[in-house]
Design brief:
By secondary structure, the chain is of the alpha+beta class. The protein is 30% helix and 22% strand. Among the domains are: 89-159 and 177-232, Elongation Factor Tu (Ef-tu), domain 3, CATH 2.40.30.70; 248-304 and 336-370, YaeB-like fold, CATH 3.30.2310. The longest helix is centred in the first third of the chain and has 66 residues, at 4-69. Belongs to the tRNA methyltransferase O family.
């Protein structure tokens, strides 16, 4: 039997050997890890350098393409134009307008002219969270920036800009066909088809706004919303040209409704009231009266009301072959019959030489798009207030 001291010494020696062995293994592991870290750092540095080189290459390529696209066409010398410093800024709509006006014709030429003109602005939840509208209901009015999406020059302007030529002057309704510089008017045919309108904020609900006094056609893409600030947006003593100061230049003498129209409207109203922005057929009739209180006809229609070339469209209506292709007219027994499309209803009317309007009939539009946000959806949100 070994002495106790010998056993204790052997145990200590074994423990020391185990510790030394563990230290050797730990050092080797640390060395391997340190080598791996150095390899990863070197690989990261190489990758970063490649990414930087690719980025520099893309920037140089973009600069070269921009310079080439801005050279004067047909020039033997590669001389940059004055627009060489210009850039392109693509904009994406944040929402869409659901308006009482189905077509361009009949949509007011300016905002707040037809106070009963209503629309809902439905924002895209993927682009604009509901929280972005917080506080907007405290303002009475807001600015709407939008695209003139029914502009007849839009395809050429965006898809083939080389073929699109800016018309420096446009015909002005108040000048009875006289022309004015396009940038001195609010014509939709602009260098960039962007519109600016002020509207009354009636209510806000989630991603949707209820507006009134609008001059926006159904389906208008909206780019931005800004609150109206009276202290800065209303300029005291602001001047306008004399041709804009003529009172009642486009006002009509009177608007009359036939008994047949009132009966026909009652029938149509049963089909559209659930999705309409109006509480009753009487209120909708008030909208028609407001909209027709201003002569909504184009200049050519006012100057040559009986010189019309008509052709039946898919709905059996007759349309004039002019720039106002949405203003349908028929040549009937009593002369020219005009058509105004509101809330899915086709309102037909005549106008005599004394600017007296006679509203004759109302029929449902078969292809009318029913709204998702009608008056009933807003009634509780509006509370005791009446639109």
């Amino acid at each position: 039997m070994a002495p106790p001291r010998s056993l204790a010494g052997a145990a200590i020696a074994a423990t020391a050997a185990a510790i030394i062995l563990s230290c050797l293994f730990y050092r080797r592991k640390c060395a391997r890890l340190a080598a791996r870290v150095r390899e990863l750092e070197a690989s990261l540095a190489v990758t970063a350098e490649k990414a930087a080189a690719e980025r520099r290459g893309r920037v140089r390529a973009q600069q070269s393409l921009r310079a080439l696209s801005q050279l004067e066409p047909g020039s033997d010398e590669a001389r940059p134009t004055k627009a060489a410093a210009s850039a392109s800024y693509p904009l994406v709509p944040i929402g869409t307008v659901e308006s009482c006006f189905s077509t361009r014709n009949g949509t007011p030429r300016q905002p707040l002219v037809v106070t009963l003109a209503r629309a809902t602005l439905v924002l895209d939840p993927a682009r604009v969270p509901a929280a972005a509208l917080e506080g907007l209901a405290s303002y009475s009015h807001c600015w709407i920036l939008y695209v003139f999406h029914l502009n007849t020059d839009l395809d050429k302007l965006w898809k083939d800009p080389a073929r699109s030529k800016l018309k420096a002057k446009v015909r002005v309704p108040r000048l009875k066909g006289g022309k004015m510089g396009v940038l001195a008017t609010r014509s939709p045919h602009r260098p960039n088809p962007i519109g600016l309108s002020v509207a009354k904020v009636e209510a806000v609900n989630g991603h949707t706004l209820l507006l009134s006094g609008v001059d926006l056609v159904d389906g208008t893409p909206v780019l931005d919303i800004k609150p109206y600030l009276p202290y800065s947006d209303s300029v005291k003593g602001a001047a306008v040209p004399s041709w804009l100061e003529v009172d009642g230049a486009l006002a009509v003498e009177s608007v009359h409704f036939s008994e047949h129209f009132i009966s026909a409207l009652s029938t149509c109203w049963m089909h559209v009231q659930q999705m309409s922005l109006y509480a009753s057929a009487d209120e909708f009739q008030d909208l028609i009266k407001q909209a027709l209180s201003w002569d909504i006809r184009s200049i050519s229609q006012r100057n040559r009301p009986h010189q019309v070339s008509v052709e039946a469209d898919a709905n059996g209506h007759c349309g004039e072959d002019t720039d106002d292709d949405h203003h349908h007219r028929d040549t009937g027994r009593y002369g020219v019959v005009y058509h105004l499309h509101l809330e899915g209803i086709d309102v037909s009317y005549r106008i005599d030489q004394g600017s007296n309007i006679f509203v004759e009939d109302a029929t449902l539009l078969p292809d009318a798009v029913q709204k998702r946000h009608g008056y009933l959806a807003w009634r509780d949100k509006l509370g005791s207030s009446v639109l």
